[in-house]
Amino acid sequence: MRQPISPVPFLTQIPDWRDHKRSTYPWNALWVVVLIGLMAGPENILALSQWIQLQREELMQCLKLQDVPRQATIYRFFWKLDAHLPQLKAALLAWVKQQCPEMQDRVAVLAGDGKVLKGSARESQSALSFLSVFFHDLSLTVTQVEQGGRHEAKALQDLLADLNTLFGESWLLTLDAAYTEQHLTSQVIAAGGDYLVPLKNNTKALKEWAVIAFSVVGWNYARHH
Length: 225
Known about the structure:
Layout: H1 8-11, H2 27-39, H3 45-54, H4 56-63, H5 71-81, H6 85-99, E1 108-116, E2 129-135, E3 140-146, H7 152-156, H8 160-167, E4 171-174, H9 182-190, E5 193-196, H10 204-213
Parallel strand pairs: 1-4, 4-5
Antiparallel strand pairs: 1-2, 2-3
C-alpha cells in the first residue's frame, strides 16, 4: 500500500500573502497547524482556535514554534484565503491527482450528493449548501461547488471539468434520482464519465416505473434490493 502524500507541499505553493516583516509563523507551519486543527472537526473558526490553544505545547514542540497562532491570526488566514480560492482549488486537485496516479488506467468510483455545511447558518441567511463528489478510494471529497439555490443537477455541471481533469475518461458517478435529467446525463457522458442511479424506496413511484421500463425485452438490468 502506497504511503499517503501530504497536501502541505501543494498548499504552500499558494503565494504567501502576508507582510513578511510582520509574519510570526513560517508559511509551512501555519498551514500544518490549520490542517491538523481542521481534522479535529471544529464547527467554526472560534472552535478551531480554541482547539489549537488546547494543543499548544504539543504543536510548539512538534513544529518547533515559539507559540501557536491566535484566533485573530486564524481569522485573517481564512479571510485572505477567500481571495485565493482558484489557487486553493488547483492545489487540492493536483494533490488528489498525485495521490492516485494509476486512476488513469482504471475506473474511479465516485458519489455525488448535496450537503449542508454545518455551522454556516446565520440569523439572516440560511446555511451554505454544497454539491460534493466523494471519491471512494481515498474516502475523500475531491471537488465541490456551492449550490447557491440551484437544483443539484445544475450545480453538478460545474464539477464535470474537475472530474475529467482528475480521472480522464474513466470514472463512474452514482447519482440520486433527482439528477436524472437528459441534459445533465448527456453532459456526464460528454465529459468522459458514466453514471449509475440507484433507486431507493423513498422514490417508490419512480422505482415502480423503472421496474416496468426495464422489464421490456432487451432491458433486463433491473435488480431488486
